[in-house]
Amino acid sequence: MAVCMRLGLCGFMVLLLAWPAAAQSGGVPPEWEVRQDLAGLAERIQRFKPILDQVKPQTWPGAPAAYVDQGKRVSAEIDYLIASAQALAAQPEKLTAALTTYFRMQSLDLMLRSYADGIRKYQNPALAELLQGALSSSAADREKLRQYIVDLAAFKEQQFRVADQEAQQCRGAPSRHPQGARKEERK
């Protein structure tokens, strides 16, 4: 049991030391950098709102009514993306928060491209181009977040491997002691 405790403590120390080492060795970026990137992402996503405020699908002659609903969904998705980016900034080590943010970015990208087609056709091609430009400016954010997810997943896998190795050593530790030694430890 004492061997297992020592091994567990050693494993815990390895995990604690691995996080900054991974961040400095080209693995997972440091938390302050991730937070800074996410603040920039939220700021660039906020830039969609003034452009979208100019879009009036309810006034588009001959346009399907679905564009009105799509405009509402786009606005809601922007708010969801900003909230998920803030949640990830609060806990940058959470893989689920990173994935949620990335999937929201993907969803917003698809929605905005479709919406821009409607804007181009029914309202104003220049406004659609402005929206497309803002969308293009967020492509680097999406790629950076994708890479962060890959790096974070690799780091989490490494943590799991270390923890699993420690657990394997703990499971094997009692069998390495002779029978007599175990009886003496219990007394």
What number is the mean pLDDT?
A: 82
- Put simply, the count of helices is 8
Strand content: under 5%
User: How far apart are the termini?
Assistant: 13 Å
User: What's the story with the biggest beta sheet?
Assistant: none
- Counting helices, strands and paired strands, the structural category is mainly alpha
Integer tally of domains: 1
Residue windows where pLDDT falls under 50 for at least 5 positions: 1-25
- The H/E string reads HHHHHHHH
The percent range for helix content is over 70%
Shape: elongated
Give the beta-strand count. 0
Rg measurement, Å: 25 Å
Properties at a glance:
mainly alpha, single chain, disordered N terminus, elongated, 187 residues
Report on the architecture of this protein.
This protein has helices at residues 2-24, 31-46, 48-53, 66-90, 95-122, 125-137, 139-176, 179-186. It is an all-alpha fold and 187 residues long. It has one domain. α4 packs antiparallel against α5 and α5 (95-122) runs antiparallel to α7 (139-176).
How do you describe this structure in short?
The protein is an all-alpha fold and 187 residues long. It has helices spanning 2-24, 31-46, 48-53, 66-90, 95-122, 125-137, 139-176, 179-186.
Helix-strand blueprint:
Layout: H1 2-24, H2 31-46, H3 48-53, H4 66-90, H5 95-122, H6 125-137, H7 139-176, H8 179-186
Helix pairs in contact: 1-7, 2-4, 4-5, 5-6, 5-7
